[in-house]
Amino acid sequence: MKKTISLYFLIMFLIGTDTFLVSPLLPLLSHLYHVPTTQSGWIVSAYAIGYVLFAIIAGPISDQRDKKKVLLFGFTGFGLATFLCAFAFNFSFMLIFRFLAGAFAAIAAPQIWASVPRVVKKKEVMKSMGYVGAAISVSQLAGVPIGSFLASISWRTPFLVVSFLSLLVAVVANFLLPNVLPQNQSKQKRNMIKIYHSIINDRVSVAVIIAYFIFQTGNFTVLNFIGTWLEKDFSVSITGVGFAMIFIGFGNLVGTTFGSQLIKQIGAKTSLFLGFGILILLYLSIPFSKSSLWGTAILTLIMMLNGFVFPIFMTLMQSTPIKDKSTMSSLGNAAMYAGSTISGMIGGILITNFPNFQGISGLCILLYLISATLYFKSGSLNLI
User: What would you report as the CA-atom Rg of the chain, rounded to the nearest whole angstrom?
Assistant: First the structure.
């Protein structure tokens, strides 16, 4: 199963890298397409919108099919859409192709989270979730510098490289990944309305999705405005912000990679309780940062803890009584991107009107308290 998990890692890495490497391209694309910087952000938003919309549709459809085939369809489409981005001759076509890339990513990524519990032993699920989740951290860590380097050759190069590697991995995955057939194939297939009706009527599933959405809203409010805070309060240069993000991303990678071992020793419930508790204490301390170095150190610890609790969130998503695991995984991913979108709206107001990161820290503390309450009160932690 090591080959399978390694391929899942590569696929998640490429999808994640595509998301992060676009950021350094925005100034170039803004100039190329003759659009204001404020509008260039839609290149990122188009991907997120495509992801959220198709995640809702793709989940129920994929639950009735071989997850390997759905994964390969989505990942191949993602590679082709990313390839087309390299030849978008105007801003409108770039938005369309980015939307398609997000849509195909929404078809592919949830299949991985839904497949992991089916292809590994139960005692290895948490560890495997952490390993696959580390791909997102690595992509966050490497995406911006890789994107910057490739963009120095040409703005088309990042898209061409990611698309080529994606299609290559898709070919390899076709031969090496196991088939993951739908469970209970003998039963009558359910339509989308029935699947979502069963999820809405399951209290635990609803609580897990809402709690994850609330957590990610707080998480992305911080991530989206780290650079703004460092520049505003400490006059850190763009290069300095880049180095800070590398350290912060490395912290997340460490937490995601090694957290599952600690979770296995002390239990998921204790791990989540400690994780939320320490995170809240760290957010309380951020406004008192006296230097960018101190602030970066705290944020690195925060992202390490976020990586530590991430496998628990993913395992909980797949441990609810709902049998439609791809739909649950799709909803979890949609919740994450919805949280990312909302955080951009809220964070801008908070960073402008409150000094020393106080507004964003305060919001995170509030959201994490609500999220933790939902997880513990729902009884979901008794399922793993």
Answer: 20
C-alpha to C-alpha distance for 224 and 211, rounded to whole angstroms:
20
Provide the token pair at 326.
């791809």
Mean of all residue pLDDT scores within the chain: 88
Candidates 1.20.1250.20, 3.30.70.100, 1.25.40.10, 3.40.140.10; CATH matching 2-178:
1.20.1250.20
DSSP assignment of 339-358: HHHHHHHHHHHHHHHSSTTH
**Looking at residue 185, what is its pLDDT?**
55
Q: Which of 89, 93, 68, 81 is nearest to 167 (CA)?
A: 81
Cα distances from 57 to residues 73, 135, 156, 200, 235, in angstroms, run: 15, 25, 31, 15, 44
* Ramachandran region, residue 190 (left: φ > 0; alpha: ψ -120 to 50; beta: rest): beta
| Domain at 197-379, CATH from 1.10.287.110, 1.10.357.10, 1.20.1250.20, 1.10.1760.20 | 1.20.1250.20
Task: List pLDDT tens digits, range 328-339.
Answer: 988 988 898 888
